[in-house]
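Quick one: structure for this chain?
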Amino acid sequence: MIVDFPKRPRDRRQKTRLAPPRPAEADEAPQADNRTAVNIAALIFVALLVIGALWAFNKLSDANAMMNCLSSGRSNCNEMLHPGAP
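Got it. Here's what it folds into:
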């Protein structure tokens, strides 16, 4: 099977421009402000994600400590793990 490729132009100046022209500098200012707002929103989202992961880790760690205490046959695990709690 033979594949026919399109022929290249003989004159290299005949190539078409593939990239669109760059916008003027006045058009870039609103885009930069929007980009900053999006970056701040992404940073807040990541911070909330990290805080949520730390909270979940602490809850799982507490549950693991409670399971270990109960599996050892103790009956006062809540008082041992959380002293002073009502």
